[in-house]
């Protein structure tokens, strides 16, 4: 992997101006924060933008209150990923607390596809629903909204996805990008739903606030502004309240963090949407409601663990198949054996490993279609590519770094050629930024000060450091040879350097006296004693 190494030049000015240590000053310099953002980090305050700032907030609340007063049937229509499932739960729970039972539907990835569709609108109208509220979808549901209007059903769209110039003829919209007065545009579908829920309830709710925080991490929203406040505060609530629905998914060996949400909790939720043939994602809405029976929750959480393990195994197996088809400077692979619900994970795995764009498709021989998912890196925008080559696709959507698409048999080869041509003259630069620090920057107090910048996540990534020519005093294998642990004495601290999953390098490294490493810094606490770990990501 190639890295973009940052050599701090002006960190001493930051040290003097903001009275921070050299390590924190170097990280701040590397982030190039403007003054307001930096003040928010160093002097944290809770940021929360009120629901009233949405352009059609009043109209939306009026229509919902009218529906409640007239005892109309209301249905919440969600999406099959973590954001959509929890956004649905947030609104269903809010209505329950208002004494209103509402219907809800999480679409099946394969039967329904993404977003509100005509067939489901007709079914809801038949069942007597007169108001549909979408969460985490809707801005592109033109036909479905048109059909709803014909049937006398109002649709309130709450969404956060990109839209083109036209919008469906919905009753009202709750969307940051349609609201000039809403100051921060990049919030999740779940956080949008939470804003509506808290406006309906006339108060904040700790548990629903935590669910919104999970959607913010799972949907990789930038952890800045109110998103950062949301996740930071919610992590405290989760640790204090120990909500059963979250505890069962977290497991005993974990603590609440952006990492455990992103890599432990969210994947278990997402596995239902990816493998709906084993269990409908609709059961998760009932699971996350406050009055869910304990035995039901235990059963669903066990299913979540089982499904996620199955998903991991299938993804790894199919990724190995995909790698056999690697060539050129990108992955373009299809198979009738690949699971359609996993194509995005396989493409993402490739893109992370090789820092190149990945296009992975499930081939449906009966329909003659390739349904795919793509992942990219900075420098090659998928959205721009799709827009410039619309003639190649039956359907497409997404943003610059991730998207979905469908190609027919007639355009399969020409689509490959278009990608090849588009990448031919592009010089894609490494996306991994590394900060070069010195051994005098490292001590427990300095590393602890980095908590000011937490929680880490999208657009506020955990800093990755380079240490050059570190002296190695001892090296050993851990966990029956699975991992490596090296000891080093720096200028001000003793540090354990851990290299997970690389125990096989012991023979090559056992006599090494110095090494240059890239990784992250971590405080280890054992029996009230603190020590420093450097988690190695790469040896360079």
Automatic annotation (TrEMBL):
Show where the DHHA1 domain sits.
Answer: 332-423
Short name of one Pfam family: DHH
Domain DDH intervals: 73-201
Q: Which residues cross the membrane?
A: none
UniProt entry keywords in alphabetical sequence: Exonuclease, Hydrolase, Nuclease
GO MF, one example: exonuclease activity
Ranges for domain RecJ OB come to: 436-538
Q: Does the keyword Hydrolase apply?
A: yes
Q: Does the keyword Hydrolase apply?
A: yes
Record's family? Belongs to the RecJ family.
**What name has this protein been given in UniProt?**
Single-stranded-DNA-specific exonuclease RecJ
